[in-house]
Amino acid sequence: MSTLLSDASKHLDLAIKHATVSDDLITRLRAPKASLTVSIPLRRDDGSLEVFQGYRVRYDDSRGPAKGGVRFHPGVNLDEVQSLAFWMTFKCAAVNLPFGGGKGGITVNPKTLSPMEVERLSRGYIDAIADFIGPDVDILAPDVYTNARIMSWMMDQYSIIRRQYSPGVVTGKPLAVGGSQGRESATAMGAFFVIQTLMPKFDRRPAETTVAVQGFGNAGSIIAELLAEAGYRVVAVSDSQGGIYSKQGLDIPSIRQHKESTREGVKAVYCAGSVCGIVEHEVITNEQLLALDVDVLIPAALEGQITADNAHQIQAKYVFEVANGPVTFAADQILESRNIYVIPDILVNAGGVTVSYFEWVQNRNGLYWSGAEVHNQLQQKMVEETEAMWCISQQESISVRSAAYVHALNRLGETVEAKGTHRYFRHA
Ligand SMILES: NC(=O)C1=CN([C@@H]2O[C@H](COP(=O)(O)OP(=O)(O)OC[C@H]3O[C@@H](n4cnc5c(N)ncnc54)[C@H](OP(=O)(O)O)[C@@H]3O)[C@@H](O)[C@H]2O)C=CC1
Ligand SMILES: O=C(O)CCC(=O)C(=O)O
């Protein structure tokens, strides 16, 4: 049976011919190093008890501690978390961070919980996985439906268990508890640098480029705003309830404001309302958004959005994967055969984990950087690694996705060689 992980790992088959790594390494990288499944009891506000499934996967840690976010979503399952941890492994190597890949999640619809229940669930998750994580072992961060506030609770709970202040076990924290300047906008800012580096190669200028963005959370709303500010015409955005379209372009700051204003009370963790609540725009479905006649399509929600079923309907010429895994392997092949450029998640959304790395470094040193320093270091890394992957794709005549995997595999291979393959593969 094909799983999300087996689908994701098909990209290794395309990359291996162009990378200088052994078959052994590829074989090893087809399975996660360790997966933990836990059950988390939650006392609801009404006094009842519910038990939720949680996961933490350490996919590979040959280049450093595992690193990756925690997702709270009803669709979370072990296969999804393993796939997300797989992508983290290659993302961290692709942009040369000294981390391996990890990921976690809880199968829950957090929008049905009160803020206090979300806090108890977050702390309960850490109680359950505390022995599996650590600042030098496996470091958490935000992902879908988790945020800085939840990271703060998780870091605090870990510190309570360890009986020592441990800011480095979680990144994406609020500034008041050791967060970094620029982490909130880092995923989108990184994607912006990738887009700005590649668009001139396609001879495209912002003013003549239309954009549609699927997903209007941390990553989607900020990339929409950054692109609009830079002069791109963002004509469509969406969230879990649907989307809006305006041929003239949308006023993104006011849409962000509208969405934020739908938080229920100052203590609410999630926005209750939708971008669709803005009445003056044409309402579209998420399916329609993906098929719009735009130049740039930015999936920034969940995986598996562009599949073999709708890949033929995509009209955009460039797809920038801000979400993890939004294009299935089969869809990727179809888009490539239609000469649509797909710029992969492991490059496009790597700005988030890059600033998480900066946060971890700051936590270890106890010395904090200015916003300008974070911004400059992020820009330098994203531009440098984008150029490197673009160069491989041109030299080898392969897609940018395959080039990203080649780049990451070569780095993973160098590390394993340097440590000694006897240790890694347990040779006789
Ligand atoms: N946050 C980060 O630092 C990073 C995130 N990513 C990836 O980016 C993607 C988005 O994450 P992030 O922005 O953090 O998550 P958020 O929780 O902040 O936002 C998720 C957004 O996706 C929308 N959404 C949920 N389900 C659907 C759906 N079925 N169709 C359309 N939209 C939907 C949500 O809608 P609603 O508002 O209605 O709930 C929300 O607007 C994920 O793939 C994540 O793994 C990658 C790297 C780093
Ligand atoms: O910031 C991080 O450590 C990881 C973010 C993440 O989960 C991702 O890049 O998918």
UniProtKB/TrEMBL annotation:
List the residue(s) that the UniProt entry marks as the site Important for catalysis.
143
GO function term, MF aspect, one: nucleotide binding
Per the record's keyword annotation, is Lipoprotein included, yes or no?
no
PANTHER family xref list: GLUTAMATE DEHYDROGENASE, GLUTAMATE DEHYDROGENASE 1, MITOCHONDRIAL
Q: What Gene3D superfamilies does this protein's entry cite?
A: Leucine Dehydrogenase, chain A, domain 1 (3.40.50.10860), NAD(P)-binding Rossmann-like Domain (3.40.50.720)
> What is the protein named?
Glutamate dehydrogenase
Show where the Glutamate/phenylalanine/leucine/valine/L-tryptophan dehydrogenase C-terminal domain sits.
Answer: 180-420
**Can you tell me which residues bind NAD(+)?**
187, 218
Keywords per UniProt: NAD, Nucleotide-binding, Oxidoreductase
Query: Signal peptide: which range, if any?
Result: none
Question: Which family does the record claim for this protein?
Answer: Belongs to the Glu/Leu/Phe/Val dehydrogenases family.
Annotated binding of substrate, by residue: 67, 91, 356
InterPro entries under this entry?
A: Aminoacid_DH-like_N_sf, Glu/Leu/Phe/Val/Trp_DH, Glu/Leu/Phe/Val/Trp_DH_C, Glu/Leu/Phe/Val/Trp_DH_dimer, Glu/Leu/Phe/Val_DH_AS, Glu_DH, NAD(P)-bd_dom_sf, NAD_bind_Glu_DH
Q: Which organism is it from?
A: Prochlorothrix hollandica PCC 9006 = CALU 1027
GO BP terms, alphabetized:
L-glutamate catabolic process
Pfam families from the UniProt entry:
ELFV_dehydrog, ELFV_dehydrog_N
Q: Which residues form the active site?
A: 103 (proton donor)
Look up the domain of life of the source: Bacteria
